[in-house]
Design a protein that fits this description.
- The radius of gyration is 24 Å and the shape is globular.
- It contains 14 helices and 22 strands.
- By secondary structure, the chain is an alpha/beta fold.
- Strand 7 and strand 8 form a beta hairpin.
- The protein has 2 domains: about 170 residues, Flavin prenyltransferase-like (Rossmann fold, 3-Layer(aba) Sandwich), CATH 3.40.50.1950; about 220 residues, CoaB-like (Rossmann fold, 3-Layer(aba) Sandwich).
- The chain is about 35% helix and about 25% strand.
- The strands form 6 sheets. It has an 8-stranded mixed beta sheet with strand order 13-12-9-14-17-18-20-21, with helices on both faces. A 6-stranded parallel beta sheet has the order 3-2-1-4-5-6, with helices on both faces.
- The C terminus is likely disordered.
- Bound molecules: ligand PMT.
């Protein structure tokens, strides 16, 4: 099934190197042409001979060992590969590539390639959650690298947690999916998605916010990415992992979100506003902690900018999709927002529904369009729902028509 596909496996030094042998074996059995490159520390765990036998190809590890004088090996391999997978990817290699360091054959090749590169990290759970490692992963994701997240379980270091290299079978499945020709209707399109709550500061220790977890917006971003979009996710403060292959812009307040969305708006093909943006913010931000007194306190609130309404007024080629979080007269209020904010679509959810709304993994929504579509959806996981909603919008727009916009 992977016949004629050229996959370069870059093996870096961690105990999970033994699983990379199985990965190479499975890819080769599936018909791929597999070549392997190792760092010096990877060779401490498994010898190059194991990879040579499994791949039936030479194994590369020395930048200066030029076997073929007609080419420069690391450039040749960087150009040769259709796909490069770094498995296992150590904290060290993530840090180096994130910072443009090329000091061995693996990192030099990664910097020289234009092929898609996936990292499959494997390390101790605390190391994986280390701020510097998280920062490097975020930088790499924003640079367009994809991540195969480690799974949870017993780690070689004796800890239990997230840090195990994903199983070779699962990685092979992802490789199959990657090479299976798919209809990617959003390819070449920029889709901007907002997610999560905003925080409106009162003073250095207090803020006004809401219960949005970001799950709906993050699911929309992952679905847009999977449908081929260049995806920008403008996210309020949430505790979700950043999706790989998506450019994430972190914001805090409604004003930050407004600035970030406007910056991305002009060349966007679609904007989806899943975020729960504050309608009001404290009229004044106190720069010192407000002191309590015996009596009640009154907080003067001022309106925030209605971002979606502003986008509706400035609409050009963009398809504008809003969400409406309602607790009563759900469809009527949704229709009203659709018209008033000059939207193409609105996804209405009753946030009092125990199967939907804030924080849940599932949602129950109705998709309304300005052309009169009313499409209700049963409760389903937000991840599945996001894909269904995007596919409906794409169909409504007409695939070719969409591409012409
Ligand atoms: O994040 P989760 O926990 O997964 O929960 C998902 C959700 C309930 C937050 C989501 O499904 C949802 O309904 N998001 C929209 C919430 C909201 O703010 O609804 P609204 O009816 O108040 O606003 C209507 C639309 O205007 C929204 O697209 C909102 O992003 C936008 N808006 C609102 C106020 C404002 N100042 N600017 C805006 O752009």
């Amino acid at each position: 099934m992977l016949k004629d596909k050229k996959v370069l496996i870059c093996v870096t030094g961690g105990i999970a190197v033994y699983k990379a042998v199985a990965l190479v074996s499975k890819l080769a059995q599936a018909g791929a042409d597999v070549k392997v490159m190792m760092t010096e520390s990877a060779k401490e765990f498994v010898t190059p001979l194991s990879f040579q036998v499994m791949s039936r190809n030479d194994v590369f590890f020395d930048t200066f060992d030029e076997k073929d004088s007609s080419v420069i090996a690391h450039i040749d391999l960087a150009d040769w590969a259709d796909l490069i997978i770094v498995a296992p990817a150590t904290a060290n290699v993530l840090g180096k590539v994130a910072n443009g360091i090329a000091d061995n054959m693996v990192t030099t090749t990664l910097l020289a390639t234009t092929a898609e590169v996936w990292f499959a990290p494997a390390m101790n759970v605390d190391m994986y959650q280390n701020k510097a490692v998280m920062r490097n992963i975020e930088m790499l994701s924003n640079d367009g690298y994809r991540f195969i997240e480690p799974s949870e379980g017993f780690l070689a270091c004796g800890y239990v947690g997230k840090g195990r290299l994903e199983e070779p079978e699962k990685i092979v499945e992802l490789v199959f999916e990657h090479f299976t020709p798919r209809n990617l209707p959003l390819k070449g399109k920029k889709v901007v998605i907002t997610a999560g709550p905003t925080r409106e500061r009162i003073d250095p220790v207090r803020y006004v916010s809401n219960f949005s977890s970001g799950k709906m917006g993050y699911s929309m971003a992952e679905a847009a990415r999977d449908l081929g979009a260049e995806t920008v996710l403008i996210s309020g403060p949430v505790s979700l992992d950043k999706p790989s292959g998506v450019r994430v812009v972190d914001i805090e307040s409604a004003e930050d979100m407004f600035q970030a969305v406007v910056k991305e708006y002009e060349d966007a093909a679609m904007v989806i506003k899943s975020a729960a943006v504050a309608d009001y913010k404290p009229a004044e931000i106190h720069h010192q902690k407000m002191k309590k007194s015996d009596g009640d306190a009154v907080l003067q609130m001022a309106r925030t900018t209605d971002i979606l309404k502003t986008l509706g007024e400035r609409k050009d080629q963009q398809i504008l999709v809003g969400f409406a979080a309602e607790t009563e007269n759900v469809l009527a209020y949704g229709q009203d927002k659709l018209q008033r904010k000059n939207l193409d679509y609105i996804i209405v959810n009753d946030v009092t529904d125990p199967d939907g709304g804030f924080g849940n993994d599932t949602n129950v929504v109705t998709l309304l369009s300005k052309k009169g579509l009313v499409q209700p959806h049963e409760s389903m996981p937000k991840r599945q729902l996001a894909k269904v909603l995007l596919e409906e919008i794409i169909e409504e727009e007409g695939l070719d028509g969409f591409n012409d916009r």
